[in-house]
Protein backbone atom coordinates (compact mmCIF):
# COMPACT_ATOMS: atom_id res chain seq x y z
CA UNK A 1 0.00 0.00 0.00
CA UNK A 2 1.08 3.56 -0.56
CA UNK A 3 1.02 5.97 2.30
CA UNK A 4 1.12 9.55 1.40
CA UNK A 5 1.59 12.14 4.15
CA UNK A 6 -1.85 12.42 5.69
CA UNK A 7 -3.53 9.95 3.34
CA UNK A 8 -3.25 6.45 2.12
CA UNK A 9 -3.60 5.30 -1.43
CA UNK A 10 -4.30 1.67 -1.57
CA UNK A 11 -6.25 -0.92 -3.53
CA UNK A 12 -8.19 -3.13 -1.14
CA UNK A 13 -7.69 -6.43 -2.98
CA UNK A 14 -4.46 -5.99 -4.91
CA UNK A 15 -1.87 -4.07 -2.92
CA UNK A 16 0.56 -2.19 -5.12
CA UNK A 17 4.08 -3.20 -4.18
CA UNK A 18 7.25 -1.23 -4.62
CA UNK A 19 8.39 -3.63 -7.33
CA UNK A 20 5.10 -3.16 -9.17
CA UNK A 21 5.52 0.60 -9.03
CA UNK A 22 9.03 0.25 -10.44
CA UNK A 23 7.69 -2.11 -13.09
CA UNK A 24 5.36 0.66 -14.19
CA UNK A 25 8.48 2.73 -14.62
CA UNK A 26 7.19 5.18 -12.11
CA UNK A 27 10.06 7.18 -10.68
CA UNK A 28 8.64 7.94 -7.26
CA UNK A 29 11.72 9.66 -5.78
CA UNK A 30 11.95 11.96 -8.77
CA UNK A 31 8.23 12.70 -8.62
CA UNK A 32 8.28 13.34 -4.91
CA UNK A 33 11.55 15.14 -4.91
CA UNK A 34 12.27 13.39 -1.65
CA UNK A 35 13.07 10.03 -0.16
CA UNK A 36 11.08 6.84 -0.27
CA UNK A 37 10.96 4.36 2.60
CA UNK A 38 9.69 0.82 2.16
CA UNK A 39 8.93 -0.80 5.50
CA UNK A 40 8.51 -4.52 6.06
CA UNK A 41 5.92 -6.23 8.26
CA UNK A 42 7.00 -4.12 11.21
CA UNK A 43 5.05 -1.16 9.88
CA UNK A 44 2.08 0.50 11.59
CA UNK A 45 -0.45 -1.60 9.68
CA UNK A 46 1.73 -4.69 9.55
CA UNK A 47 1.70 -4.46 5.74
CA UNK A 48 4.46 -3.41 3.38
CA UNK A 49 4.25 0.36 3.24
CA UNK A 50 5.95 3.07 1.31
CA UNK A 51 6.22 6.61 2.59
CA UNK A 52 6.92 9.60 0.41
CA UNK A 53 8.59 12.51 2.16
CA UNK A 54 8.06 15.62 0.09
CA UNK A 55 7.76 19.35 0.49
CA UNK A 56 4.46 20.18 2.17
CA UNK A 57 3.14 22.98 -0.08
CA UNK A 58 -0.48 22.48 -1.16
CA UNK A 59 0.41 22.54 -4.87
CA UNK A 60 3.12 19.89 -4.48
CA UNK A 61 0.80 17.70 -2.41
CA UNK A 62 -2.12 17.88 -4.79
CA UNK A 63 0.22 17.34 -7.78
CA UNK A 64 1.64 14.15 -6.26
CA UNK A 65 -1.80 12.94 -5.16
CA UNK A 66 -3.13 13.54 -8.67
CA UNK A 67 -0.23 11.57 -10.15
CA UNK A 68 -0.75 8.71 -7.71
CA UNK A 69 -4.48 8.74 -8.33
CA UNK A 70 -3.91 8.15 -12.05
CA UNK A 71 -2.18 4.82 -11.34
CA UNK A 72 -4.44 1.82 -11.79
CA UNK A 73 -5.89 0.48 -8.54
CA UNK A 74 -4.75 3.30 -6.30
CA UNK A 75 -7.32 5.24 -4.32
CA UNK A 76 -7.41 7.62 -1.35
CA UNK A 77 -7.75 5.96 2.05
CA UNK A 78 -11.05 5.90 3.92
CA UNK A 79 -11.06 7.75 7.25
CA UNK A 80 -9.22 5.62 9.80
CA UNK A 81 -8.30 2.97 7.20
CA UNK A 82 -4.70 2.67 8.36
CA UNK A 83 -5.82 1.99 11.92
CA UNK A 84 -8.49 -0.43 10.77
CA UNK A 85 -5.89 -2.41 8.82
CA UNK A 86 -3.58 -2.39 11.85
CA UNK A 87 -6.49 -3.69 13.97
CA UNK A 88 -7.34 -6.41 11.44
CA UNK A 89 -3.75 -7.64 11.47
CA UNK A 90 -3.72 -7.71 15.29
CA UNK A 91 -1.22 -4.84 15.60
CA UNK A 92 -3.49 -3.12 18.11
CA UNK A 93 -6.76 -3.86 19.88
CA UNK A 94 -9.86 -1.65 19.87
CA UNK A 95 -9.00 0.18 23.09
CA UNK A 96 -5.57 1.05 21.68
CA UNK A 97 -7.23 2.24 18.45
CA UNK A 98 -9.54 4.43 20.51
CA UNK A 99 -6.50 5.70 22.43
CA UNK A 100 -4.91 6.66 19.12
CA UNK A 101 -8.08 8.53 18.12
CA UNK A 102 -8.04 10.34 21.46
CA UNK A 103 -4.36 11.17 21.01
CA UNK A 104 -5.07 12.79 17.65
CA UNK A 105 -7.81 14.88 19.25
CA UNK A 106 -6.02 15.57 22.59
CA UNK A 107 -5.95 19.27 23.38
CA UNK A 108 -4.37 19.28 26.81
CA UNK A 109 -1.32 17.61 28.34
CA UNK A 110 -3.35 15.42 30.71
CA UNK A 111 -5.55 14.25 27.81
CA UNK A 112 -2.42 13.45 25.78
CA UNK A 113 -0.97 11.37 28.61
CA UNK A 114 -4.17 9.42 29.16
CA UNK A 115 -4.56 8.75 25.42
CA UNK A 116 -0.93 7.68 25.08
CA UNK A 117 -1.29 5.27 27.97
CA UNK A 118 -4.38 3.75 26.39
CA UNK A 119 -2.73 3.61 22.98
CA UNK A 120 0.20 1.75 24.51
CA UNK A 121 -2.34 -0.95 25.30
CA UNK A 122 -2.51 -0.68 29.09
CA UNK A 123 -6.30 -0.62 29.25
CA UNK A 124 -6.50 -3.43 26.69
CA UNK A 125 -4.06 -5.51 28.75
CA UNK A 126 -6.18 -5.03 31.87
CA UNK A 127 -9.30 -6.27 30.05
CA UNK A 128 -7.31 -9.11 28.48
CA UNK A 129 -6.12 -10.18 31.93
CA UNK A 130 -9.74 -10.27 33.12
CA UNK A 131 -10.73 -12.21 30.05
CA UNK A 132 -7.99 -14.79 30.69
CA UNK A 133 -9.09 -15.11 34.32
CA UNK A 134 -12.62 -15.79 33.12
CA UNK A 135 -11.42 -18.33 30.57
CA UNK A 136 -9.54 -20.17 33.30
CA UNK A 137 -12.57 -20.15 35.60
CA UNK A 138 -14.78 -21.36 32.77
CA UNK A 139 -12.36 -24.16 31.87
CA UNK A 140 -12.35 -25.36 35.48
CA UNK A 141 -16.12 -25.21 35.68
CA UNK A 142 -16.53 -27.14 32.44
CA UNK A 143 -14.01 -29.71 33.62
CA UNK A 144 -16.08 -30.16 36.77
CA UNK A 145 -19.32 -30.48 34.78
CA UNK A 146 -17.82 -33.06 32.42
CA UNK A 147 -15.69 -35.13 34.77
CA UNK A 148 -16.92 -34.78 38.34
CA UNK A 149 -19.04 -37.93 38.03
CA UNK A 150 -15.91 -39.99 37.40
CA UNK A 151 -14.45 -38.39 40.52
CA UNK A 152 -11.56 -37.02 38.55
CA UNK A 153 -12.31 -33.42 39.55
CA UNK A 154 -12.58 -32.44 43.19
CA UNK A 155 -15.54 -30.57 44.63
CA UNK A 156 -13.28 -27.74 45.79
CA UNK A 157 -12.73 -26.70 42.16
CA UNK A 158 -16.20 -25.17 42.32
CA UNK A 159 -15.42 -23.01 45.34
CA UNK A 160 -12.18 -21.88 43.65
CA UNK A 161 -14.16 -20.81 40.58
CA UNK A 162 -16.62 -18.98 42.85
CA UNK A 163 -13.77 -17.12 44.55
CA UNK A 164 -12.21 -16.13 41.21
CA UNK A 165 -15.55 -14.86 39.88
CA UNK A 166 -16.33 -12.92 43.08
CA UNK A 167 -12.88 -11.26 43.07
CA UNK A 168 -13.26 -10.34 39.40
CA UNK A 169 -16.75 -8.94 40.00
CA UNK A 170 -15.35 -6.73 42.76
CA UNK A 171 -12.42 -5.58 40.62
CA UNK A 172 -14.74 -4.66 37.74
CA UNK A 173 -17.10 -2.91 40.18
CA UNK A 174 -14.23 -0.78 41.55
CA UNK A 175 -13.07 0.00 38.00
CA UNK A 176 -16.60 1.14 37.08
CA UNK A 177 -16.89 3.35 40.16
CA UNK A 178 -13.92 5.58 39.48
CA UNK A 179 -16.03 8.74 39.45
CA UNK A 180 -15.90 8.82 35.62
CA UNK A 181 -12.32 10.13 35.91
CA UNK A 182 -11.17 8.90 32.51
CA UNK A 183 -14.35 10.04 30.75
CA UNK A 184 -14.11 13.49 32.36
CA UNK A 185 -10.52 13.89 31.26
CA UNK A 186 -11.33 12.70 27.75
CA UNK A 187 -14.42 14.87 27.23
CA UNK A 188 -13.56 17.81 29.50
CA UNK A 189 -14.98 18.71 32.91
CA UNK A 190 -18.26 20.60 32.41
CA UNK A 191 -18.28 23.50 34.85
CA UNK A 192 -21.20 25.89 35.21
CA UNK A 193 -20.96 29.47 36.47
CA UNK A 194 -24.11 30.06 38.50
CA UNK A 195 -25.41 32.72 40.86
CA UNK A 196 -27.91 35.52 41.29
CA UNK A 197 -28.15 38.19 38.55
CA UNK A 198 -25.56 40.93 38.26
CA UNK A 199 -22.91 39.39 40.54
CA UNK A 200 -20.31 39.22 37.74
CA UNK A 201 -20.78 35.72 36.28
CA UNK A 202 -20.24 36.81 32.69
CA UNK A 203 -17.30 38.99 33.80
CA UNK A 204 -15.78 35.86 35.37
CA UNK A 205 -16.19 33.86 32.15
CA UNK A 206 -14.54 36.65 30.17
CA UNK A 207 -11.71 36.94 32.69
CA UNK A 208 -10.99 33.21 32.54
CA UNK A 209 -11.06 32.95 28.75
CA UNK A 210 -9.33 36.33 28.25
CA UNK A 211 -11.83 37.59 25.68
CA UNK A 212 -15.28 39.18 25.73
CA UNK A 213 -17.15 35.91 25.05
CA UNK A 214 -20.26 36.99 27.02
CA UNK A 215 -22.05 40.35 27.23
CA UNK A 216 -21.43 42.24 30.48
CA UNK A 217 -23.71 45.05 31.60
CA UNK A 218 -24.95 46.67 34.83
CA UNK A 219 -28.50 45.55 33.96
CA UNK A 220 -29.56 42.54 36.05
CA UNK A 221 -30.75 39.71 33.80
CA UNK A 222 -28.40 40.41 30.89
CA UNK A 223 -27.40 36.81 30.15
CA UNK A 224 -30.13 34.49 28.86
CA UNK A 225 -28.51 31.95 26.53
CA UNK A 226 -25.82 29.65 27.86
CA UNK A 227 -22.38 30.84 26.69
CA UNK A 228 -19.83 28.05 26.53
CA UNK A 229 -16.03 28.21 26.20
CA UNK A 230 -13.37 25.47 26.26
CA UNK A 231 -10.29 26.12 28.39
CA UNK A 232 -7.08 24.39 29.40
CA UNK A 233 -6.44 24.81 33.13
CA UNK A 234 -3.17 23.29 34.34
CA UNK A 235 -3.26 20.70 31.55
CA UNK A 236 -6.84 19.67 32.31
CA UNK A 237 -9.69 20.33 29.85
CA UNK A 238 -12.49 22.53 31.16
CA UNK A 239 -15.75 23.35 29.37
CA UNK A 240 -17.07 26.43 31.13
CA UNK A 241 -20.66 27.68 30.79
CA UNK A 242 -21.95 31.11 31.76
CA UNK A 243 -25.66 31.05 32.60
CA UNK A 244 -28.55 33.40 33.35
CA UNK A 245 -28.77 34.79 36.90
CA UNK A 246 -31.00 32.60 39.08
CA UNK A 247 -34.12 34.45 40.21
CA UNK A 248 -37.92 34.28 39.90
CA UNK A 249 -38.05 36.12 36.60
CA UNK A 250 -41.27 37.57 35.18
CA UNK A 251 -40.02 38.18 31.65
CA UNK A 252 -40.69 35.00 29.60
CA UNK A 253 -37.35 35.19 27.78
CA UNK A 254 -35.48 35.50 31.07
CA UNK A 255 -37.59 32.65 32.49
CA UNK A 256 -36.37 30.45 29.65
CA UNK A 257 -32.78 31.55 30.43
CA UNK A 258 -33.20 30.62 34.10
CA UNK A 259 -34.69 27.26 33.16
CA UNK A 260 -31.70 26.58 30.86
CA UNK A 261 -29.35 27.58 33.69
CA UNK A 262 -31.02 25.13 36.09
CA UNK A 263 -30.85 22.40 33.48
CA UNK A 264 -27.10 22.98 33.04
CA UNK A 265 -26.65 22.93 36.81
CA UNK A 266 -28.25 19.50 36.99
CA UNK A 267 -25.71 18.05 34.60
CA UNK A 268 -22.66 19.97 35.82
CA UNK A 269 -19.50 18.18 36.94
CA UNK A 270 -18.40 21.29 38.81
CA UNK A 271 -20.09 24.58 39.78
CA UNK A 272 -18.48 27.98 40.16
CA UNK A 273 -21.05 29.58 42.49
CA UNK A 274 -20.68 33.35 42.31
CA UNK A 275 -22.02 35.70 44.98
CA UNK A 276 -21.57 39.44 45.50
CA UNK A 277 -18.92 39.74 48.25
CA UNK A 278 -20.45 42.97 49.54
CA UNK A 279 -23.89 41.38 49.93
CA UNK A 280 -23.11 38.15 51.81
CA UNK A 281 -22.82 37.33 55.54
CA UNK A 282 -19.22 37.49 56.73
CA UNK A 283 -19.16 34.37 58.93
CA UNK A 284 -18.89 30.81 57.44
CA UNK A 285 -22.28 29.56 58.69
CA UNK A 286 -24.15 32.48 57.09
CA UNK A 287 -22.12 32.11 53.91
CA UNK A 288 -22.90 28.39 53.84
CA UNK A 289 -26.63 29.18 54.16
CA UNK A 290 -26.43 31.69 51.27
CA UNK A 291 -24.74 29.06 49.12
CA UNK A 292 -27.26 26.40 50.20
CA UNK A 293 -30.20 28.52 49.06
CA UNK A 294 -28.50 29.00 45.67
CA UNK A 295 -27.58 25.32 45.19
CA UNK A 296 -29.89 23.04 47.15
CA UNK A 297 -28.43 19.58 47.81
CA UNK A 298 -27.43 17.30 46.23
CA UNK A 299 -25.11 19.89 44.67
CA UNK A 300 -22.16 18.81 42.49
CA UNK A 301 -18.59 19.72 43.58
CA UNK A 302 -18.38 23.47 43.91
CA UNK A 303 -16.04 26.45 44.24
CA UNK A 304 -17.53 29.51 45.92
CA UNK A 305 -16.42 32.78 44.32
CA UNK A 306 -17.11 36.00 46.26
CA UNK A 307 -16.82 38.58 43.50
CA UNK A 308 -16.47 42.39 43.50
CA UNK A 309 -13.90 42.21 46.31
CA UNK A 310 -12.68 45.66 45.22
CA UNK A 311 -15.90 47.12 46.64
CA UNK A 312 -15.31 45.69 50.14
CA UNK A 313 -14.49 47.98 53.05
CA UNK A 314 -13.88 46.91 56.67
CA UNK A 315 -15.94 43.67 56.23
CA UNK A 316 -13.20 42.44 53.85
CA UNK A 317 -11.01 41.20 56.73
CA UNK A 318 -13.78 39.02 58.22
CA UNK A 319 -14.64 37.58 54.78
CA UNK A 320 -10.99 36.80 54.10
CA UNK A 321 -10.86 34.89 57.42
CA UNK A 322 -14.04 33.00 56.52
CA UNK A 323 -12.56 32.00 53.13
CA UNK A 324 -9.33 30.81 54.74
CA UNK A 325 -11.14 28.82 57.45
CA UNK A 326 -13.15 26.92 54.84
CA UNK A 327 -15.26 24.43 56.75
CA UNK A 328 -18.27 24.17 56.38
CA UNK A 329 -17.70 25.95 53.08
CA UNK A 330 -16.41 24.40 49.86
CA UNK A 331 -13.14 25.86 48.49
CA UNK A 332 -13.85 29.60 48.60
CA UNK A 333 -12.07 32.64 47.24
CA UNK A 334 -12.47 36.39 47.11
CA UNK A 335 -12.16 37.79 43.60
CA UNK A 336 -12.37 41.05 41.74
CA UNK A 337 -13.08 40.64 38.04
CA UNK A 338 -12.42 44.37 37.80
CA UNK A 339 -8.86 44.41 39.21
CA UNK A 340 -7.91 40.73 38.78
CA UNK A 341 -7.26 40.38 42.52
CA UNK A 342 -7.75 36.76 43.64
CA UNK A 343 -7.51 35.31 40.10
CA UNK A 344 -4.35 33.30 40.87
CA UNK A 345 -6.03 31.77 43.91
CA UNK A 346 -9.14 30.91 41.89
CA UNK A 347 -7.02 29.24 39.18
CA UNK A 348 -5.21 27.28 41.88
CA UNK A 349 -8.54 26.08 43.34
CA UNK A 350 -9.80 25.23 39.86
CA UNK A 351 -6.68 23.22 38.97
CA UNK A 352 -6.95 21.36 42.28
CA UNK A 353 -10.62 20.47 41.68
CA UNK A 354 -9.89 19.38 38.12
CA UNK A 355 -7.01 17.19 39.27
CA UNK A 356 -9.32 15.65 41.89
CA UNK A 357 -12.09 14.99 39.34
CA UNK A 358 -9.87 13.69 36.54
CA UNK A 359 -7.12 12.07 38.62
CA UNK A 360 -3.52 11.63 37.53
CA UNK A 361 -3.71 9.92 34.12
CA UNK A 362 -0.44 8.12 34.82
CA UNK A 363 -1.17 6.91 38.35
CA UNK A 364 -2.90 3.69 39.40
CA UNK A 365 -4.65 1.38 36.98
CA UNK A 366 -5.71 2.95 33.68
CA UNK A 367 -9.09 4.70 33.71
CA UNK A 368 -12.21 3.90 31.82
CA UNK A 369 -12.44 6.44 29.04
CA UNK A 370 -15.57 5.68 27.02
CA UNK A 371 -19.20 5.02 27.77
CA UNK A 372 -18.89 2.08 25.35
CA UNK A 373 -16.49 0.45 27.82
CA UNK A 374 -18.68 1.11 30.87
CA UNK A 375 -21.69 -0.32 29.04
CA UNK A 376 -19.96 -3.62 28.29
CA UNK A 377 -18.30 -3.77 31.69
CA UNK A 378 -21.70 -3.21 33.34
CA UNK A 379 -23.13 -6.10 31.30
CA UNK A 380 -20.10 -8.23 32.16
CA UNK A 381 -20.53 -7.51 35.90
CA UNK A 382 -24.26 -8.28 35.65
CA UNK A 383 -23.49 -11.65 34.01
CA UNK A 384 -21.01 -12.45 36.81
CA UNK A 385 -23.63 -11.56 39.42
CA UNK A 386 -26.12 -13.91 37.72
CA UNK A 387 -23.48 -16.62 37.76
CA UNK A 388 -23.44 -16.27 41.58
CA UNK A 389 -27.22 -16.70 41.71
CA UNK A 390 -27.53 -19.57 39.21
CA UNK A 391 -24.52 -21.60 40.18
CA UNK A 392 -26.33 -23.53 42.99
CA UNK A 393 -29.30 -24.31 40.74
CA UNK A 394 -27.86 -25.13 37.35
CA UNK A 395 -24.14 -25.43 36.60
CA UNK A 396 -24.71 -25.43 32.84
CA UNK A 397 -26.57 -22.15 32.99
CA UNK A 398 -23.94 -20.69 35.31
CA UNK A 399 -21.22 -21.62 32.80
CA UNK A 400 -23.20 -19.84 30.09
CA UNK A 401 -23.14 -16.68 32.25
CA UNK A 402 -19.34 -16.85 32.38
CA UNK A 403 -19.22 -17.23 28.60
CA UNK A 404 -21.47 -14.22 28.24
CA UNK A 405 -19.32 -12.17 30.64
CA UNK A 406 -16.25 -13.05 28.58
CA UNK A 407 -17.99 -12.06 25.37
CA UNK A 408 -18.74 -8.62 26.82
CA UNK A 409 -15.07 -8.14 27.70
CA UNK A 410 -14.09 -9.29 24.22
CA UNK A 411 -16.35 -6.71 22.62
CA UNK A 412 -14.44 -3.92 24.39
CA UNK A 413 -11.08 -4.98 23.02
CA UNK A 414 -12.51 -6.18 19.69
CA UNK A 415 -11.44 -9.78 20.25
CA UNK A 416 -15.05 -10.84 19.88
CA UNK A 417 -17.06 -9.79 16.80
CA UNK A 418 -17.79 -6.11 17.16
CA UNK A 419 -18.48 -5.22 13.53
CA UNK A 420 -21.17 -2.71 14.42
CA UNK A 421 -18.84 -0.63 16.57
CA UNK A 422 -15.88 -0.85 14.21
CA UNK A 423 -17.49 1.46 11.69
CA UNK A 424 -18.16 4.10 14.34
CA UNK A 425 -14.71 3.90 15.90
CA UNK A 426 -12.68 4.05 12.71
CA UNK A 427 -14.95 6.57 11.04
CA UNK A 428 -13.98 9.01 13.80
CA UNK A 429 -10.31 8.99 12.80
CA UNK A 430 -8.74 11.65 10.69
CA UNK A 431 -8.18 10.71 7.07
CA UNK A 432 -5.04 8.69 6.62
CA UNK A 433 -4.67 7.44 10.16
N1 LIG B 1 -16.68 46.78 40.91
C1 LIG B 1 -16.83 45.64 40.27
N2 LIG B 1 -17.77 45.49 39.32
C2 LIG B 1 -17.89 44.30 38.70
C3 LIG B 1 -17.03 43.21 38.99
N3 LIG B 1 -17.40 42.19 38.22
C4 LIG B 1 -18.42 42.59 37.45
N4 LIG B 1 -18.72 43.85 37.73
C5 LIG B 1 -19.78 44.67 37.14
O1 LIG B 1 -21.02 44.11 37.54
C6 LIG B 1 -21.98 44.28 36.51
C7 LIG B 1 -22.61 42.94 36.16
O2 LIG B 1 -21.62 42.14 35.59
P1 LIG B 1 -21.98 40.83 34.72
O3 LIG B 1 -20.71 40.11 34.48
O4 LIG B 1 -22.79 41.20 33.56
O5 LIG B 1 -22.89 40.07 35.78
P2 LIG B 1 -23.75 38.73 35.57
O6 LIG B 1 -23.72 37.99 36.86
O7 LIG B 1 -23.30 38.02 34.38
O8 LIG B 1 -25.18 39.33 35.35
P3 LIG B 1 -26.45 38.64 34.64
O9 LIG B 1 -26.03 38.11 33.32
O10 LIG B 1 -27.40 39.76 34.50
O11 LIG B 1 -26.96 37.59 35.56
C8 LIG B 1 -21.25 44.91 35.34
O12 LIG B 1 -21.48 46.31 35.37
C9 LIG B 1 -19.79 44.61 35.64
O13 LIG B 1 -18.89 45.58 35.10
C10 LIG B 1 -16.02 43.40 39.99
O14 LIG B 1 -15.24 42.53 40.32
N5 LIG B 1 -15.97 44.62 40.58
MG1 LIG C 1 -24.27 37.53 32.67
Low-confidence stretches: 1-16, 27-36
Instruction: Give me the CATH fold name of the largest domain.
Output: Rossmann fold
Give average pLDDT, whole number: 84
Number of domains as seen in the coordinates:
3
**Name of the level-1 CATH class of the largest domain:** Alpha Beta
Q: Give the tally of β-strands.
A: 10
CA radius of gyration is 29 Å
Largest sheet: 6 strands, mixed
Q: Identify every distinct bound molecule in the structure, by name, code or SMILES.
A: guanosine-5'-triphosphate, magnesium ion
CATH superfamily (homologous) name of the largest domain:
P-loop containing nucleotide triphosphate hydrolases
Family: Belongs to the TRAFAC class TrmE-Era-EngA-EngB-Septin-like GTPase superfamily. TrmE GTPase family.
Keywords: GTP-binding, Hydrolase, Nucleotide-binding, tRNA processing
Protein name: GTP binding protein 3, mitochondrial
Organism: Otus sunia
Describe what this molecule looks like in 3D.
The protein is an alpha/beta fold. The protein has 3 domains: 2-77, no CATH class; 113-178 and 370-427, Four Helix Bundle (Hemerythrin (Met), subunit A), CATH 1.20.120.430; 184-358, Rossmann fold (3-Layer(aba) Sandwich). 50% of the residues lie in helices and 12% in strands. The chain has 17 helices and 10 strands. The chain has helices at 18-23, 28-32, 58-69, 81-88, 94-105, 109-119, 122-147, 156-176, 181-187, 201-209, 252-266, 284-294, 315-325, 343-358, 371-390, 395-413, 419-427, and strands spanning 2-4, 7-9, 36-39, 49-52, 189-194, 227-233, 236-242, 270-276, 302-307, 332-334. A 6-stranded mixed β-sheet has the order 6-7-5-8-9-10, sandwiched between helices. The protein has a 4-stranded mixed β-sheet with strand order 2-1-4-3. A hairpin with a 2-residue loop joins strand 1 and strand 2. Helix 5 (94-105) packs antiparallel against helix 6 (109-119) and helix 7 packs antiparallel against helix 8 (156-176). The longest helix is centred in the N-terminal third of the chain and has 26 residues, at 122-147. Bound molecules: guanosine-5'-triphosphate (GTP) and magnesium ion. The site of guanosine-5'-triphosphate has 23 residues, from helix 10.
Amino acid sequence: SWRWGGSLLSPPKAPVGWKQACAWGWDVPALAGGELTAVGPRSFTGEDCAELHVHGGPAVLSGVLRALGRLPGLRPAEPGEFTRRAFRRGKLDLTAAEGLGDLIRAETEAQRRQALRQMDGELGRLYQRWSKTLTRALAHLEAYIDFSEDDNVEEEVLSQVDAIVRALEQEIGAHLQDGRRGELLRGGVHAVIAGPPNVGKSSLLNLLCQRPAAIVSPVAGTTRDVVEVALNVGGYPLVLSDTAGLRDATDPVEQEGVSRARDRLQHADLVLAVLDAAAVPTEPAGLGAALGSLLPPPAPPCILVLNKADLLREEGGALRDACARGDPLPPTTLLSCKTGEGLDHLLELLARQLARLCGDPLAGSPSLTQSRHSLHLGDCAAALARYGRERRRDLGLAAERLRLARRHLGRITGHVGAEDVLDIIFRDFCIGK
